[in-house]
Amino acid sequence: MKRLFVAFINLFRIPTDNMPLVRAQFDAFSKQIPLLYFILTTNSLAAAWTFTRFAPDWLGVYFPSALCTLCGVRCVWWWRSRHKVFSDTYIIKAMRATTGLAVGLTLGFTIWALLLYPYGDAYARGQVVFCLALTVIGCVFCLMHLRPAALAVTLFANIPFVLFFFLEGHDSLKAISINLALVSVAMIMILMVYSRDFARLVESQAETRRLSDENFRIANLDSLTDLPNRRWFFTELERYHAEAVASGRSFAVGIIDLDGFKPVNDTYGHMTGDRVLAEVGRRLSRTAGKDLTLARLGGDEFGFIMANDPTEDRLKAFSTTLIEAIRLPFAIGGSNAHLGASIGVARYPDTAQSPESLFERADYALYHAKRTQRGQVVVFSSRHEEQIRSHGVIEQALQAADFDNEMSLVYQPIVDTRTGRASTFEALARWNSPILGAVGPGDFIPVAERNGQVRALSLILLGKALRAAAQWPQTVRISFNLSAHDISQAESVIQIIALINQSGVSPKRIDFEITETSISYDFQQARAAVIAFRALGVGISLDDFGTGYSSLSHVHRLALDKIKVDRSFVADVTTNPVSHKIVKSLSALCTDMGLDCVLEGVETAAQLEALTDLGCTFVQGYYFARPMPEEDVQHYLESEDKLPSRRRMGK
């Protein structure tokens, strides 16, 4: 019995332990409260108007006027408060006050109606019954989201009503009272079910919001570094741009690229590389200020957005702080790894008007930093804008170029340290434009890739390379670079194979060099292309090894013959113990995997000696020869026994 009593009392309590539900109930019933007061006022005025000629003034005029005035004041208050945001404490107090006021108004209107009833004729009395029943039902439905008030209205209005008319003695009134009692029970059951379902709905919505928020967090968070990811970064970039347009203020975008991470990642493994990236994220987060938005864009690239009108000096000072934080040693097992960072920055609205252009300008500044000022920060300037325009000039000249006549090849030997002789010549593209003059491959090949001309260019240059190789000794190979577009489409692969078959050069004398970038462009198609070339007998070299994020993965998943180690490893192999260890490890890795290893960028006798001592078999660089025209290759082959470097390697 006590438990039932407690349960009954709890029906009239506000659940303060579940504030999301309380707030939802408050928001719902507060929208219906004005309708409740409207129902009370209109029904009361209708009854009062009918009884003015029967009842005394205090009962027919003054009492209902007071009740209606109170309803009107409360209605105006609720209407004005509909857009306000209230605290949890205030909401609980308001709901309790509303429940209490509902009880008071219910008793007031019920007593007034029952006192009014005896003064009327049969029609007026019928109106009292009708208005009272209709008012109670309307008010209960308006208060359904506030269960204590709805129950109170049902009980304090209908119980006196049922008893009063049942005791009147008239059969029709008894029937009405019994009917109203049954309807009241049904209304209470509906109210309880609705209250339960509403609570479940609120809980379900809360869970949905929680899952949505979690999905949003996951979708916009980099799980490795706990920094926002690329998607979130560009969303924020759009927001910053919109705010800057509206306010007239400026902001800046910066892109951070780690220097030296890829060798560490490939040498020590991806798990170690991931730990290094996570530590980089923590260092950047500690350095970032309040007006800075930081994100990981992918791989070893990070981005930031700086607000509040940053000056060039402030951007350089902050970027230098980031670079210095990254330069601190990273603990890897029992040793330390050292990384650097290059940063490109662009400011709005100085350098671009759209978010996309602004990011492209920052990316170009980063490219310039890595090419000419590695380990420093470059702020995009008008000079860089001129360089971008020059690429546009190159694109226009390429569109009008006669590839057969304007494009040529030069050849650089790859030397076998065991024999001291050139085992392969790498074909390198050159363009002598009648409009622009000599244009380097680093300028025109990226443009040809962007405008879709690179496939036609590759076929023409490959034809020239094969015709040259046909004149060389059968022991000398030809190495040719393929772009991402050359291996990403089956049609292009078929055209290359047909060209080889028509050339008369044995496929076993041909090496195709592909970069990690071209593999990542469409790995499945790149893998299919490699399989097709290998089936023909062509050798496959992975060029610029160590400059891509997944070098070891590509070595493992592709049928390669050689890897060409990037020149950045060779540059300080004689002075930097870390570079020396990395080259040694890479050479051993190639030996274990049955791959030939080619070291690029050999420029001094000391570098050659160090590489030879490490067991490196194939080397390439200015120390042996600069790229030469086709007519000089035969002379080089005939005279290579007389070169001092050959005698030195033959000792």
Structure description:
The protein has 26 helices and 17 strands. An eight-stranded mixed beta barrel has the order 8-9-11-12-13-14-15-16, surrounded by four helices. It has a five-stranded mixed beta sheet with strand order 2-3-1-6-7, with helices on both faces. It is elongated and about 135 Å long. The protein is α/β, with parallel strands linked by helices and 651 residues long. It folds into three domains: 2-212, no CATH class; 230-380, Reverse transcriptase/Diguanylate cyclase domain (Alpha-Beta Plaits); 402-649, TIM Barrel (Alpha-Beta Barrel). Helix 2 packs antiparallel against helix 3 and helix 10 crosses helix 11. The longest helix has 49 residues, at 171-219. Helices cover 62% and strands 15% of the residues.
Write a concise keyword list for the protein shown above.
651 residues, alpha/beta, TIM Barrel, eight-stranded mixed β-barrel, five-stranded mixed β-sheet, 17 strands
* CATH architectural group of the largest domain: Alpha-Beta Barrel
Shape: elongated
| Helix fraction bin | 55-70%
- Would you give the CATH topology of the largest domain? TIM Barrel
Cα radius of gyration in angstroms? 42 Å
CATH homologous superfamily caption of the largest domain: EAL domain
The counted number of beta strands is 17
Q: Give the helix/strand class.
A: alpha/beta
Low-confidence stretches at least 5 residues in length (pLDDT < 50)? none
Strand order of the largest sheet: 8-9-11-12-13-14-15-16
